[in-house]
Amino acid sequence: MNCYDRRDLGLLLLRLGVGGVLAAHGAQKLFGWFGGGGIAGTGQFMESVGYKPGNASALASGLAECGGGTLLALGLATPAAGAAAAAGMTGAAAVHAPNGFFNAEGGLEYPLALGLTAAGIAVTGPGRLSLDHALGHSFNRDWMVPAALAAAAAGASAAVCLRAKRLRQTSEGEQEALFEE
Fold first, then answer.
1. pTM
2. Which residues contact 118 (CB under 8 A, 6 or more apart)?
3. Omega of the bond prior to 126 within 30 degrees of 0, cis?
């Protein structure tokens, strides 16, 4: 097996692994599969962590994860798929960031790893063992990579910034106790 074949096999394994995890995670949000809350349950959670409206946030997050993950696994529309998945994981990382880095403490380690891997696949491309390759890369042109990543970054930044603003406004009216009783 030469280096080019190994690279294609490696990209296939990365796409299947990360894409499958993301698709399953998104299916929890969209359909309530695998013990997930579906749109209603996830929407309530999204509201509780500052993403409003909750149901729309659940739908957007679920589509980014399930849709992006499925397309990554297939190697189809790889720039858009990787960018969408990375954007979804950016929103998740923002929720986990106050808990530090490590996943054991509820930190951002896991969504960060998934998001960076999805973005890396978007930049690298799907390899020859993909639907993009089989279709002549119609949905995987060089110009699509920066366009997809820029659009996803703008959308994720807007969502995360709006959430941060809502959280600040909520906490403005609260005052910590000056003295212990």
1. 0.90
2. 18, 22, 68, 72, 81, 82, 83, 85, 86, 89
3. no
